[in-house]
Amino acid sequence: MPEANPARGPEPVVVERPTSALAAVIRRRDAPTAMREDLEGWLAAQGVEGEDLQAMLAVGAERLLVYRKLVHNRLRSTTREFLERTVARLGTERFARDFEGFMEDRASHTPYLRDVPTEFLEWVLPRWAEDPEVPRYLPDLARHEVCDYEVRNHFSAQAHEDDAPTGLPLALDRPLRFHGAARLMHYEHAVHRLSTAKDDRTEAEAEPTHLLVYRDDRHRARYLALTPFAAALLQALVVDRMAVQPALLAAAQALGEPLDDDKLASAAELLADLAERGACLGAEPETA
Amino acid sequence: MSMFEAILSTRSVPTGIGLGLRARFIDRVARGAADGVPTFVELCPENYMHRGGRSPARLEEVAQRFPVICHGLMMSLGSTDPFEDAYFAQLRAFLDRYDPPWHSDHLCWSGLHGAVLHDLLPVPFTSAVARRVASRVVEARDRLERPMAVENISWYAELGASQLDEVEFLVEILERADCGLLLDVNNVFVNAQNHGFDPLAWLERIPLERVVQLHVAGHESWEEDLIIDTHGATVRDEVYELMAWVIERTGPRPVLLERDSNIPPLPELLDEIRRLDGVYQQALSRWEADRSGGSADVRTAKAVGHA
Prior knowledge:
In chain A, 53% of the residues lie in helices and 12% in strands.
Protein backbone atom coordinates (compact mmCIF):
# COMPACT_ATOMS: atom_id res chain seq x y z
CA MET A 1 0.00 0.00 0.00
CA PRO A 2 1.20 3.49 -0.75
CA GLU A 3 2.01 5.75 2.14
CA ALA A 4 -0.31 8.71 2.72
CA ASN A 5 1.31 12.12 2.67
CA PRO A 6 -0.51 15.06 4.22
CA ALA A 7 -0.07 17.21 1.13
CA ARG A 8 -2.34 20.07 0.13
CA GLY A 9 -5.04 19.61 -2.48
CA PRO A 10 -8.41 17.98 -2.79
CA GLU A 11 -7.09 14.50 -3.59
CA PRO A 12 -4.72 12.65 -1.31
CA VAL A 13 -1.20 12.53 -2.67
CA VAL A 14 0.55 9.25 -2.11
CA VAL A 15 4.21 8.48 -1.88
CA GLU A 16 5.13 5.37 -3.82
CA ARG A 17 6.74 2.81 -1.54
CA PRO A 18 9.78 2.39 -3.82
CA THR A 19 10.34 6.15 -3.54
CA SER A 20 10.15 6.22 0.24
CA ALA A 21 12.37 3.11 0.31
CA LEU A 22 15.00 4.90 -1.77
CA ALA A 23 14.85 7.82 0.66
CA ALA A 24 15.52 5.31 3.45
CA VAL A 25 18.41 3.79 1.45
CA ILE A 26 19.95 7.24 1.40
CA ARG A 27 19.15 8.38 4.93
CA ARG A 28 19.10 5.36 7.23
CA ARG A 29 22.43 4.81 8.94
CA ASP A 30 21.97 1.02 9.03
CA ALA A 31 20.84 0.71 5.41
CA PRO A 32 24.07 -0.56 3.79
CA THR A 33 24.64 -3.34 6.29
CA ALA A 34 21.00 -4.36 6.59
CA MET A 35 20.42 -4.30 2.83
CA ARG A 36 23.47 -6.45 2.14
CA GLU A 37 22.40 -8.96 4.79
CA ASP A 38 18.76 -9.30 3.78
CA LEU A 39 17.55 -7.01 1.00
CA GLU A 40 14.12 -8.61 0.77
CA GLY A 41 13.51 -8.27 4.49
CA TRP A 42 14.79 -4.70 4.53
CA LEU A 43 12.64 -3.61 1.58
CA ALA A 44 9.61 -5.36 3.05
CA ALA A 45 10.20 -3.46 6.29
CA GLN A 46 10.01 -0.26 4.21
CA GLY A 47 6.59 -1.35 2.94
CA VAL A 48 7.74 -2.45 -0.53
CA GLU A 49 5.76 -5.46 -1.70
CA GLY A 50 4.50 -7.40 -4.71
CA GLU A 51 5.86 -6.48 -8.14
CA ASP A 52 7.69 -3.48 -6.73
CA LEU A 53 9.55 -5.73 -4.32
CA GLN A 54 10.51 -8.17 -7.06
CA ALA A 55 11.71 -5.33 -9.29
CA MET A 56 13.85 -3.82 -6.55
CA LEU A 57 15.28 -7.22 -5.63
CA ALA A 58 16.28 -7.62 -9.27
CA VAL A 59 18.07 -4.27 -9.12
CA GLY A 60 20.05 -5.43 -6.09
CA ALA A 61 21.43 -3.75 -3.00
CA GLU A 62 24.64 -2.43 -4.53
CA ARG A 63 22.93 -0.58 -7.36
CA LEU A 64 20.42 1.00 -4.96
CA LEU A 65 23.28 2.02 -2.71
CA VAL A 66 24.84 3.96 -5.60
CA TYR A 67 22.29 6.65 -4.83
CA ARG A 68 23.35 6.76 -1.19
CA LYS A 69 26.95 7.18 -2.28
CA LEU A 70 26.07 9.96 -4.74
CA VAL A 71 24.04 11.93 -2.22
CA HIS A 72 26.44 11.52 0.69
CA ASN A 73 29.49 12.31 -1.45
CA ARG A 74 27.94 15.51 -2.73
CA LEU A 75 26.73 16.77 0.63
CA ARG A 76 29.84 15.75 2.54
CA SER A 77 32.20 17.33 0.02
CA THR A 78 30.23 20.58 0.10
CA THR A 79 30.28 20.62 3.89
CA ARG A 80 33.98 19.75 3.99
CA GLU A 81 34.70 22.61 1.61
CA PHE A 82 33.13 25.08 4.01
CA LEU A 83 34.58 23.46 7.15
CA GLU A 84 37.96 22.57 5.75
CA ARG A 85 40.07 23.12 8.87
CA THR A 86 37.43 21.76 11.23
CA VAL A 87 37.10 18.51 9.30
CA ALA A 88 40.87 18.17 8.94
CA ARG A 89 41.21 18.38 12.72
CA LEU A 90 38.20 16.18 13.43
CA GLY A 91 39.28 13.46 11.00
CA THR A 92 37.43 12.33 7.90
CA GLU A 93 36.15 9.07 9.45
CA ARG A 94 34.60 10.83 12.42
CA PHE A 95 33.18 13.49 10.11
CA ALA A 96 31.62 10.80 7.91
CA ARG A 97 30.03 9.16 10.97
CA ASP A 98 28.63 12.47 12.17
CA PHE A 99 27.35 13.22 8.71
CA GLU A 100 25.52 9.90 8.58
CA GLY A 101 23.87 10.81 11.87
CA PHE A 102 22.82 14.17 10.45
CA MET A 103 21.34 12.51 7.37
CA GLU A 104 19.34 10.05 9.45
CA ASP A 105 18.15 12.39 12.20
CA ARG A 106 17.50 15.57 10.28
CA ALA A 107 18.97 15.87 6.76
CA SER A 108 18.92 19.09 4.79
CA HIS A 109 15.75 21.14 4.46
CA THR A 110 17.05 23.92 2.26
CA PRO A 111 17.00 24.08 -1.54
CA TYR A 112 20.39 25.79 -1.40
CA LEU A 113 23.33 23.43 -1.33
CA ARG A 114 25.52 26.18 0.11
CA ASP A 115 23.36 26.24 3.26
CA VAL A 116 23.87 22.55 4.07
CA PRO A 117 27.06 23.15 6.14
CA THR A 118 25.12 25.53 8.40
CA GLU A 119 22.34 22.95 8.80
CA PHE A 120 24.91 20.30 9.63
CA LEU A 121 26.47 22.53 12.27
CA GLU A 122 23.11 23.28 13.86
CA TRP A 123 22.65 19.55 14.28
CA VAL A 124 26.16 18.52 15.27
CA LEU A 125 27.35 21.34 17.56
CA PRO A 126 25.29 20.28 20.61
CA ARG A 127 26.59 16.73 20.11
CA TRP A 128 30.20 17.84 19.83
CA ALA A 129 29.80 19.96 22.96
CA GLU A 130 28.95 16.83 24.97
CA ASP A 131 31.57 14.59 23.40
CA PRO A 132 34.92 14.45 25.24
CA GLU A 133 36.60 13.08 22.11
CA VAL A 134 35.98 16.33 20.25
CA PRO A 135 38.51 19.09 21.05
CA ARG A 136 36.84 21.81 23.12
CA TYR A 137 37.75 24.54 20.67
CA LEU A 138 36.44 22.73 17.58
CA PRO A 139 32.82 23.97 17.75
CA ASP A 140 34.14 27.54 17.86
CA LEU A 141 36.40 26.90 14.87
CA ALA A 142 33.50 25.38 12.91
CA ARG A 143 31.28 28.39 13.62
CA HIS A 144 34.14 30.68 12.68
CA GLU A 145 34.68 28.94 9.33
CA VAL A 146 31.02 29.00 8.36
CA CYS A 147 30.62 32.59 9.54
CA ASP A 148 33.15 33.70 6.96
CA TYR A 149 31.03 32.33 4.13
CA GLU A 150 27.76 33.62 5.58
CA VAL A 151 29.08 37.16 5.92
CA ARG A 152 30.55 37.20 2.42
CA ASN A 153 27.31 35.98 0.88
CA HIS A 154 24.67 37.49 3.15
CA PHE A 155 21.54 38.33 1.20
CA SER A 156 19.23 41.22 1.88
CA ALA A 157 16.03 41.42 -0.12
CA GLN A 158 16.21 45.19 -0.03
CA ALA A 159 19.98 45.62 -0.03
CA HIS A 160 19.80 49.07 -1.60
CA GLU A 161 17.74 50.31 1.33
CA ASP A 162 18.72 48.04 4.20
CA ASP A 163 22.46 48.06 3.63
CA ALA A 164 22.91 51.65 2.51
CA PRO A 165 24.14 54.53 4.72
CA THR A 166 21.19 56.32 6.27
CA GLY A 167 22.92 59.70 6.05
CA LEU A 168 21.81 60.44 9.62
CA PRO A 169 24.34 61.22 12.33
CA LEU A 170 24.51 59.26 15.54
CA ALA A 171 21.78 60.32 17.98
CA LEU A 172 21.59 59.07 21.55
CA ASP A 173 17.87 58.40 21.35
CA ARG A 174 17.98 56.45 18.09
CA PRO A 175 19.14 52.91 17.28
CA LEU A 176 21.95 52.54 14.76
CA ARG A 177 21.72 50.70 11.48
CA PHE A 178 24.38 48.10 10.85
CA HIS A 179 25.06 46.37 7.57
CA GLY A 180 22.92 43.21 7.37
CA ALA A 181 25.97 41.03 6.88
CA ALA A 182 27.54 42.09 10.19
CA ARG A 183 27.64 39.37 12.85
CA LEU A 184 28.62 39.47 16.47
CA MET A 185 30.41 36.23 17.31
CA HIS A 186 31.21 35.04 20.83
CA TYR A 187 33.71 32.18 21.24
CA GLU A 188 35.24 30.47 24.24
CA HIS A 189 38.49 30.00 22.36
CA ALA A 190 40.68 32.31 20.31
CA VAL A 191 40.07 30.41 17.08
CA HIS A 192 40.53 33.56 15.02
CA ARG A 193 44.23 33.48 15.83
CA LEU A 194 44.78 29.94 14.50
CA SER A 195 46.72 29.50 11.31
CA THR A 196 44.53 29.11 8.25
CA ALA A 197 46.78 26.28 7.02
CA LYS A 198 44.77 23.10 6.63
CA ASP A 199 47.49 20.92 8.13
CA ASP A 200 48.00 23.09 11.22
CA ARG A 201 46.98 21.27 14.43
CA THR A 202 47.73 23.95 17.01
CA GLU A 203 45.03 24.02 19.66
CA ALA A 204 43.21 27.29 20.14
CA GLU A 205 43.71 28.92 23.54
CA ALA A 206 40.79 28.97 25.93
CA GLU A 207 40.01 32.68 26.01
CA PRO A 208 36.67 34.46 25.85
CA THR A 209 36.64 36.03 22.40
CA HIS A 210 34.25 38.54 20.88
CA LEU A 211 34.43 39.44 17.21
CA LEU A 212 32.48 41.73 14.98
CA VAL A 213 32.50 40.09 11.55
CA TYR A 214 31.52 42.43 8.76
CA ARG A 215 31.75 42.62 5.00
CA ASP A 216 34.05 45.18 3.44
CA ASP A 217 33.45 47.01 0.19
CA ARG A 218 35.19 44.21 -1.72
CA HIS A 219 32.80 41.67 -0.21
CA ARG A 220 35.43 40.09 2.00
CA ALA A 221 34.69 39.03 5.57
CA ARG A 222 36.69 41.15 8.00
CA TYR A 223 37.16 40.53 11.71
CA LEU A 224 37.37 43.05 14.49
CA ALA A 225 38.34 41.79 17.96
CA LEU A 226 36.28 43.50 20.64
CA THR A 227 36.88 44.37 24.27
CA PRO A 228 34.24 43.05 26.68
CA PHE A 229 32.67 46.52 26.84
CA ALA A 230 32.62 46.91 23.05
CA ALA A 231 31.09 43.42 22.74
CA ALA A 232 28.39 44.26 25.28
CA LEU A 233 27.68 47.56 23.55
CA LEU A 234 27.38 45.94 20.11
CA GLN A 235 25.24 43.18 21.58
CA ALA A 236 22.80 45.89 22.69
CA LEU A 237 23.05 47.83 19.43
CA VAL A 238 23.31 45.12 16.77
CA VAL A 239 21.39 42.22 18.29
CA ASP A 240 18.95 43.91 20.68
CA ARG A 241 18.50 46.96 18.41
CA MET A 242 18.55 49.37 21.35
CA ALA A 243 18.97 53.12 21.02
CA VAL A 244 22.49 54.37 21.71
CA GLN A 245 21.99 55.78 25.20
CA PRO A 246 20.22 52.76 26.71
CA ALA A 247 22.72 50.54 24.90
CA LEU A 248 25.61 52.31 26.61
CA LEU A 249 23.94 51.90 29.99
CA ALA A 250 23.11 48.25 29.31
CA ALA A 251 26.70 47.51 28.27
CA ALA A 252 28.12 49.04 31.42
CA GLN A 253 25.55 47.26 33.53
CA ALA A 254 26.36 43.93 31.83
CA LEU A 255 29.96 44.34 32.95
CA GLY A 256 28.94 45.58 36.42
CA GLU A 257 30.88 48.78 35.89
CA PRO A 258 29.95 52.47 35.85
CA LEU A 259 29.50 54.25 32.53
CA ASP A 260 32.44 56.61 32.95
CA ASP A 261 34.17 59.03 30.59
CA ASP A 262 36.65 56.40 29.45
CA LYS A 263 33.84 54.13 28.33
CA LEU A 264 32.02 56.96 26.57
CA ALA A 265 35.21 57.92 24.76
CA SER A 266 35.95 54.34 23.71
CA ALA A 267 32.36 53.91 22.53
CA ALA A 268 32.59 57.06 20.40
CA GLU A 269 35.87 55.84 18.93
CA LEU A 270 34.43 52.37 18.21
CA LEU A 271 31.31 53.70 16.47
CA ALA A 272 33.33 56.14 14.38
CA ASP A 273 35.64 53.30 13.37
CA LEU A 274 32.71 51.05 12.43
CA ALA A 275 31.21 53.84 10.33
CA GLU A 276 34.48 54.22 8.50
CA ARG A 277 34.60 50.48 7.84
CA GLY A 278 31.09 50.53 6.41
CA ALA A 279 29.73 48.26 9.16
CA CYS A 280 27.72 51.02 10.86
CA LEU A 281 25.49 52.91 8.44
CA GLY A 282 24.27 55.74 10.65
CA ALA A 283 21.26 56.39 12.84
CA GLU A 284 18.07 54.58 11.90
CA PRO A 285 15.55 56.97 10.35
CA GLU A 286 12.36 57.45 12.28
CA THR A 287 9.53 55.38 10.83
CA ALA A 288 6.30 57.11 9.98
CA MET B 1 4.68 24.72 -35.19
CA SER B 2 7.20 23.17 -32.83
CA MET B 3 7.36 24.10 -29.17
CA PHE B 4 10.64 25.89 -29.92
CA GLU B 5 9.14 27.91 -32.75
CA ALA B 6 6.18 28.83 -30.56
CA ILE B 7 8.53 30.19 -27.91
CA LEU B 8 10.67 31.86 -30.55
CA SER B 9 7.63 33.73 -31.83
CA THR B 10 7.35 35.64 -28.56
CA ARG B 11 10.82 35.58 -27.02
CA SER B 12 14.43 35.92 -27.99
CA VAL B 13 16.19 32.54 -27.89
CA PRO B 14 19.92 31.93 -28.36
CA THR B 15 21.04 28.94 -30.43
CA GLY B 16 24.44 27.32 -30.88
CA ILE B 17 26.80 26.07 -28.20
CA GLY B 18 26.58 27.50 -24.69
CA LEU B 19 28.64 27.27 -21.55
CA GLY B 20 27.38 26.18 -18.14
CA LEU B 21 28.39 28.94 -15.76
CA ARG B 22 30.37 27.68 -12.76
CA ALA B 23 31.97 29.38 -9.76
CA ARG B 24 35.38 28.14 -10.89
CA PHE B 25 35.49 30.52 -13.83
CA ILE B 26 32.68 33.03 -13.41
CA ASP B 27 35.12 35.85 -12.63
CA ARG B 28 36.96 35.28 -15.88
CA VAL B 29 33.76 35.04 -17.90
CA ALA B 30 32.53 38.27 -16.29
CA ARG B 31 35.76 39.97 -17.36
CA GLY B 32 35.38 38.83 -20.97
CA ALA B 33 37.61 35.74 -21.14
CA ALA B 34 34.92 33.72 -22.94
CA ASP B 35 33.68 36.46 -25.25
CA GLY B 36 33.00 35.29 -28.77
CA VAL B 37 33.02 31.56 -28.05
CA PRO B 38 29.79 30.36 -26.40
CA THR B 39 26.61 31.85 -27.79
CA PHE B 40 24.92 31.83 -24.38
CA VAL B 41 25.49 30.86 -20.78
CA GLU B 42 23.27 28.57 -18.78
CA LEU B 43 23.10 29.05 -15.07
CA CYS B 44 21.47 27.25 -12.18
CA PRO B 45 19.32 29.81 -10.36
CA GLU B 46 19.74 28.00 -7.06
CA ASN B 47 23.43 28.87 -7.10
CA TYR B 48 22.64 32.58 -7.21
CA MET B 49 19.17 33.08 -5.76
CA HIS B 50 18.90 34.53 -2.29
CA ARG B 51 22.60 35.29 -2.29
CA GLY B 52 24.36 38.60 -1.74
CA GLY B 53 27.98 39.69 -1.73
CA ARG B 54 29.90 39.65 -4.99
CA SER B 55 27.53 37.26 -6.70
CA PRO B 56 24.77 39.60 -7.99
CA ALA B 57 27.11 42.18 -9.54
CA ARG B 58 29.26 39.48 -11.12
CA LEU B 59 26.21 37.82 -12.62
CA GLU B 60 25.06 41.15 -14.00
CA GLU B 61 28.41 41.48 -15.74
CA VAL B 62 28.02 38.02 -17.28
CA ALA B 63 24.45 38.81 -18.38
CA GLN B 64 25.72 41.94 -20.10
CA ARG B 65 27.97 39.75 -22.23
CA PHE B 66 25.79 36.70 -22.97
CA PRO B 67 22.16 35.70 -23.34
CA VAL B 68 21.12 33.69 -20.28
CA ILE B 69 19.23 30.40 -20.10
CA CYS B 70 18.21 29.10 -16.67
CA HIS B 71 18.19 25.48 -15.61
CA GLY B 72 17.09 24.57 -12.12
CA LEU B 73 18.09 21.76 -9.81
CA MET B 74 15.67 21.75 -6.94
CA MET B 75 12.09 21.89 -8.17
CA SER B 76 11.72 18.20 -7.34
CA LEU B 77 9.01 17.70 -9.95
CA GLY B 78 8.69 14.01 -9.09
CA SER B 79 8.16 14.53 -5.38
CA THR B 80 4.87 14.38 -3.53
CA ASP B 81 5.83 17.27 -1.27
CA PRO B 82 3.92 20.46 -2.07
CA PHE B 83 5.95 23.18 -3.74
CA GLU B 84 7.62 25.63 -1.37
CA ASP B 85 6.13 29.09 -1.77
CA ALA B 86 9.33 30.83 -0.67
CA TYR B 87 11.42 28.89 -3.17
CA PHE B 88 9.07 29.74 -6.01
CA ALA B 89 8.92 33.41 -5.02
CA GLN B 90 12.71 33.61 -5.06
CA LEU B 91 12.94 31.66 -8.31
CA ARG B 92 10.35 33.82 -10.00
CA ALA B 93 12.11 37.01 -8.94
CA PHE B 94 15.37 35.66 -10.30
CA LEU B 95 13.87 34.58 -13.62
CA ASP B 96 12.04 37.87 -14.01
CA ARG B 97 15.37 39.64 -13.63
CA TYR B 98 17.22 37.61 -16.30
CA ASP B 99 14.19 36.81 -18.44
CA PRO B 100 15.29 33.49 -19.97
CA PRO B 101 13.04 32.11 -22.74
CA TRP B 102 11.94 29.23 -20.49
CA HIS B 103 12.83 27.58 -17.24
CA SER B 104 13.78 23.95 -17.05
CA ASP B 105 14.25 21.37 -14.34
CA HIS B 106 14.67 17.61 -14.11
CA LEU B 107 12.27 14.69 -14.24
CA CYS B 108 13.24 13.46 -10.83
CA TRP B 109 12.64 13.96 -7.16
CA SER B 110 15.13 15.59 -4.84
CA GLY B 111 13.33 15.59 -1.54
CA LEU B 112 10.65 13.82 0.43
CA HIS B 113 8.69 14.77 3.55
CA GLY B 114 10.63 18.03 3.75
CA ALA B 115 14.09 16.45 3.65
CA VAL B 116 16.09 17.73 0.69
CA LEU B 117 18.64 15.29 -0.69
CA HIS B 118 20.22 17.55 -3.32
CA ASP B 119 20.42 14.95 -6.07
CA LEU B 120 18.46 13.82 -9.11
CA LEU B 121 16.62 10.73 -7.90
CA PRO B 122 14.57 8.49 -10.18
CA VAL B 123 10.79 8.24 -10.17
CA PRO B 124 8.77 5.08 -10.82
CA PHE B 125 7.75 4.91 -14.48
CA THR B 126 4.00 4.68 -13.93
CA SER B 127 1.02 6.56 -15.34
CA ALA B 128 0.07 7.83 -11.91
CA VAL B 129 3.51 9.37 -11.43
CA ALA B 130 3.47 10.79 -14.98
CA ARG B 131 0.13 12.47 -14.27
CA ARG B 132 1.40 13.89 -10.99
CA VAL B 133 4.63 15.19 -12.55
CA ALA B 134 2.71 16.73 -15.45
CA SER B 135 0.39 18.56 -13.09
CA ARG B 136 3.38 19.87 -11.15
CA VAL B 137 5.01 21.09 -14.38
CA VAL B 138 1.81 22.98 -15.16
CA GLU B 139 1.72 24.39 -11.63
CA ALA B 140 5.35 25.49 -11.97
CA ARG B 141 4.63 27.17 -15.30
CA ASP B 142 1.66 28.99 -13.79
CA ARG B 143 3.62 30.09 -10.76
CA LEU B 144 6.55 31.32 -12.85
CA GLU B 145 4.42 32.61 -15.74
CA ARG B 146 7.09 31.31 -18.07
CA PRO B 147 7.31 28.28 -20.40
CA MET B 148 8.67 25.14 -18.75
CA ALA B 149 10.90 22.41 -20.13
CA VAL B 150 11.79 19.15 -18.43
CA GLU B 151 15.04 17.25 -18.70
CA ASN B 152 15.45 13.48 -18.98
CA ILE B 153 17.86 12.29 -16.28
CA SER B 154 20.42 9.53 -15.97
CA TRP B 155 18.92 6.78 -13.82
CA TYR B 156 20.89 3.93 -12.37
CA ALA B 157 18.09 1.76 -11.03
CA GLU B 158 14.51 1.27 -12.08
CA LEU B 159 12.48 2.25 -9.06
CA GLY B 160 9.89 -0.46 -8.52
CA ALA B 161 7.80 -2.18 -11.16
CA SER B 162 7.42 0.01 -14.25
CA GLN B 163 4.13 0.21 -16.13
CA LEU B 164 5.75 2.31 -18.85
CA ASP B 165 9.19 2.46 -20.38
CA GLU B 166 11.13 5.70 -20.04
CA VAL B 167 10.07 7.11 -23.39
CA GLU B 168 6.38 6.36 -22.81
CA PHE B 169 6.68 7.96 -19.39
CA LEU B 170 8.44 11.02 -20.78
CA VAL B 171 6.00 11.47 -23.66
CA GLU B 172 3.01 11.24 -21.34
CA ILE B 173 4.42 14.05 -19.24
CA LEU B 174 5.33 16.21 -22.23
CA GLU B 175 1.88 15.87 -23.73
CA ARG B 176 -0.11 16.23 -20.54
CA ALA B 177 1.89 19.28 -19.43
CA ASP B 178 2.29 20.62 -22.98
CA CYS B 179 5.85 21.56 -22.09
CA GLY B 180 9.24 21.57 -23.77
CA LEU B 181 11.93 18.92 -23.56
CA LEU B 182 15.47 19.68 -22.54
CA LEU B 183 17.02 16.66 -24.18
CA ASP B 184 20.20 15.57 -22.44
CA VAL B 185 21.85 13.30 -24.99
CA ASN B 186 24.58 12.33 -22.55
CA ASN B 187 21.90 11.02 -20.22
CA VAL B 188 20.44 9.05 -23.11
CA PHE B 189 23.87 7.57 -23.79
CA VAL B 190 24.53 6.81 -20.11
CA ASN B 191 21.16 5.09 -19.72
CA ALA B 192 21.65 3.17 -22.95
CA GLN B 193 24.99 1.88 -21.69
CA ASN B 194 23.75 1.04 -18.21
CA HIS B 195 20.48 -0.55 -19.27
CA GLY B 196 21.45 -2.00 -22.62
CA PHE B 197 19.35 -0.23 -25.23
CA ASP B 198 20.05 1.53 -28.51
CA PRO B 199 20.19 5.31 -27.93
CA LEU B 200 19.16 6.11 -31.50
CA ALA B 201 16.12 3.86 -31.20
CA TRP B 202 15.29 5.75 -28.00
CA LEU B 203 15.67 9.12 -29.75
CA GLU B 204 13.54 8.02 -32.69
CA ARG B 205 10.57 7.65 -30.33
CA ILE B 206 10.94 11.12 -28.83
CA PRO B 207 8.69 13.94 -30.13
CA LEU B 208 11.53 16.08 -31.43
CA GLU B 209 9.17 18.98 -32.02
CA ARG B 210 9.15 19.42 -28.25
CA VAL B 211 12.93 19.70 -27.96
CA VAL B 212 13.82 23.26 -26.96
CA GLN B 213 17.40 22.67 -25.82
CA LEU B 214 20.07 19.99 -25.61
CA HIS B 215 22.66 19.15 -23.00
CA VAL B 216 25.92 17.39 -23.69
CA ALA B 217 28.41 16.32 -21.05
CA GLY B 218 30.99 13.74 -20.14
CA HIS B 219 30.58 10.83 -17.77
CA GLU B 220 32.75 8.40 -15.83
CA SER B 221 32.84 4.67 -15.12
CA TRP B 222 32.24 3.65 -11.52
CA GLU B 223 32.04 -0.06 -12.12
CA GLU B 224 32.47 -2.36 -15.07
CA ASP B 225 28.75 -2.21 -15.85
CA LEU B 226 27.94 1.24 -14.51
CA ILE B 227 28.75 4.68 -15.84
CA ILE B 228 27.72 7.76 -13.92
CA ASP B 229 26.66 11.11 -15.32
CA THR B 230 29.28 13.10 -13.39
CA HIS B 231 29.81 15.92 -15.88
CA GLY B 232 33.43 15.31 -14.98
CA ALA B 233 35.05 14.42 -18.31
CA THR B 234 35.21 15.59 -21.90
CA VAL B 235 32.29 14.72 -24.14
CA ARG B 236 32.63 11.37 -25.90
CA ASP B 237 32.33 10.96 -29.66
CA GLU B 238 29.15 8.92 -29.28
CA VAL B 239 27.50 11.82 -27.47
CA TYR B 240 28.61 14.27 -30.18
CA GLU B 241 26.94 11.94 -32.68
CA LEU B 242 23.67 11.88 -30.74
CA MET B 243 23.69 15.69 -30.50
CA ALA B 244 24.28 15.93 -34.27
CA TRP B 245 21.56 13.36 -34.97
CA VAL B 246 19.06 15.54 -33.14
CA ILE B 247 20.19 18.89 -34.59
CA GLU B 248 20.01 17.63 -38.16
CA ARG B 249 16.37 16.83 -37.48
CA THR B 250 15.35 19.81 -35.35
CA GLY B 251 17.42 22.64 -36.78
CA PRO B 252 19.00 25.32 -34.61
CA ARG B 253 18.73 24.82 -30.87
CA PRO B 254 20.73 25.96 -27.86
CA VAL B 255 23.15 23.17 -26.94
CA LEU B 256 24.86 23.35 -23.58
CA LEU B 257 28.21 21.92 -22.60
CA GLU B 258 27.98 20.90 -18.93
CA ARG B 259 31.02 20.47 -16.73
CA ASP B 260 30.65 20.17 -12.96
CA SER B 261 33.69 18.28 -11.72
CA ASN B 262 37.32 17.90 -12.79
CA ILE B 263 36.75 21.29 -14.37
CA PRO B 264 39.65 22.11 -16.70
CA PRO B 265 41.04 25.60 -17.23
CA LEU B 266 38.60 27.86 -19.06
CA PRO B 267 40.61 27.88 -22.34
CA GLU B 268 40.26 24.08 -22.53
CA LEU B 269 36.51 24.33 -22.01
CA LEU B 270 36.32 26.96 -24.73
CA ASP B 271 38.25 24.65 -27.05
CA GLU B 272 35.70 21.94 -26.36
CA ILE B 273 32.92 24.40 -27.19
CA ARG B 274 34.65 25.14 -30.50
CA ARG B 275 34.85 21.40 -31.28
CA LEU B 276 31.19 20.99 -30.39
CA ASP B 277 30.32 23.94 -32.57
CA GLY B 278 32.10 22.32 -35.52
CA VAL B 279 29.89 19.25 -35.18
CA TYR B 280 26.83 21.40 -34.56
CA GLN B 281 27.44 23.47 -37.70
CA GLN B 282 27.87 20.33 -39.82
CA ALA B 283 24.60 18.97 -38.48
CA LEU B 284 22.93 22.28 -39.14
CA SER B 285 24.18 22.21 -42.74
CA ARG B 286 22.60 18.80 -43.20
CA TRP B 287 19.34 20.11 -41.70
CA GLU B 288 19.41 23.09 -44.08
CA ALA B 289 20.16 20.86 -47.08
CA ASP B 290 17.30 18.58 -46.11
CA ARG B 291 14.94 21.54 -45.76
CA SER B 292 15.86 22.85 -49.18
CA GLY B 293 15.27 19.48 -50.79
CA GLY B 294 18.79 18.11 -50.62
CA SER B 295 19.61 14.44 -50.66
CA ALA B 296 17.90 12.34 -48.04
CA ASP B 297 21.24 10.65 -47.54
CA VAL B 298 22.55 13.68 -45.66
CA ARG B 299 20.75 12.49 -42.56
CA THR B 300 22.76 9.36 -42.43
CA ALA B 301 26.07 11.16 -42.87
CA LYS B 302 28.55 10.58 -40.09
CA ALA B 303 28.30 13.52 -37.77
CA VAL B 304 31.58 13.51 -35.98
CA GLY B 305 34.32 15.51 -37.59
CA HIS B 306 36.36 16.50 -34.57
CA ALA B 307 39.59 15.04 -33.28
